Input
Amino acid sequence: MSKYVLSLDEGTTSARALLFDKLGNVVALSKHEITQYYPRPGWVEHDPEEIWQALMRAVKEVLQQAHARPEDVAAIGVTNQRETVVVWGKDGKPLHRAIVWQCKRTADLAERLRREYGEVIKEKTGLIPDSYFSATKIMWLLENVPGLREKAEKGEVKIGTIDSYIIYRLTGKHVTDYSNASRTMLFNIRKLEWDRELLELLRIPEAALPEVRNSSEVYGYAKIDGKEIPVSGDAGDQQAALFGQACFKEGMIKSTYGTGNFILMNTGSTIHTSKNLLGTIAWGIDGRITYALEGSVFITGAAIQWLRDGLKIISSASETEGLATSLSSNEGVYFVPAFVGLGTPYWDQYARGLIIGITRSTKREHLARAVLEAIAYLTTDVVKEMDVFTQVRELRVDGGASENNFLMQFQANILGKRVVRPVVRETTAMGAAFLAGIAVGFWEGLEEVSEVWKAEKVFTPRMKEEERQKLYSAWKEAVRRAIGWAKVVGEE
Ligand code: ADP
Output
């Protein structure tokens, strides 16, 4: 009997391999940083070959750590930084560096698409046109890499997101899953196929795109030390985290507190349309699609880093917890971390950061508290948008800043809902492992996986409604004052 599932978690800054046992414990973990290339201001690239090599090294290391043989591994799951695009040949060799989701080289093109086709694209793909998604990056490659278009039209080029590249290198199969496809801005999330009209509009040959498969099924077999292991799970990182948090029922929601926050809600078989949230595919299993609503907050943990590295008023992120709890209230000090504008639900690229309510007695404790509270307010803003569709009962949390107990308690207080932190915080990698394991019967199905997922701590709201209203409306007023500031100072 195989003892483990191997999860390959390829993020923006590192490539990691993790081994999970049947109880969902992380038995071994290995991680390698990925080189970030910035060929021009605003451009970001990765080397796909480096990613592949780093992953393979990590795989060797986790097997060694666990004293495991390849036959101890029941299945391999893949999860990845979403939207990033790779082009490669039949031999698996990249034909260009990967264009990373953060890359702004196609901003003008995306802006034009938003103006001219925004409504149609949102209807078909659930997304608001932006250079962040894969479509315009693929277009750029076809236009700018010499000979690529001709080769692509002859069927000699493979295009895909990072998951697709990794699975190709592992198995020789050119596939992706529904969740990753739904982030390309080329996939029709209603008809569940590459959208012919969009492909034509953007001049992208369908033959170069991967086949879109379930997030949990055997795609092929990877040979590790001569042993064949099924590759049977695939989901984009945020969707994998939703799965790893066992948010299997409609209305279940998770928030990842990292550099920024990503909040996803399972919406079951319904595609909700919302002006401020993105509609996306959570996963597909046995041909049945589960949809999600997604909201993103750009700067959350990054504001903590700014206190540490910019202002230098703390020496570690965790110090904020003690500083914040040393005060019994925020004493009227609010912080709006709109360093790069504001995302969901405000969508104002001209907003800028603001600290308000400062008096002669304001100390670093107030700033630390105000930043932590802001993270909770911004998350609340998104959850309130989602609450319109389904009554959200609790928020499942993960990511670096979810370690902060003050933040988690304040989150519960201001949201007025339970906040639940799981024992295993590696929810992204765990999601990919669950998907892969379910496909091969390592876990029976969603029910068994729900039991593997365990809460470590539950934060219950401890604030009177009146107090909550008072604080939240002051927050809204602070945001109002931060909106459009770049325009005021002529920085547009
Ligand atoms: P990412 O995957 O985006 O790099 P992580 O999930 O590793 O992010 O989380 C790192 C972020 O969490 C950093 O921005 C850091 O400032 C913040 N962070 C880590 N620990 C704490 C803490 N105890 N309190 C508040 N913020 C924290």
The longest strand covers residues 227-236.
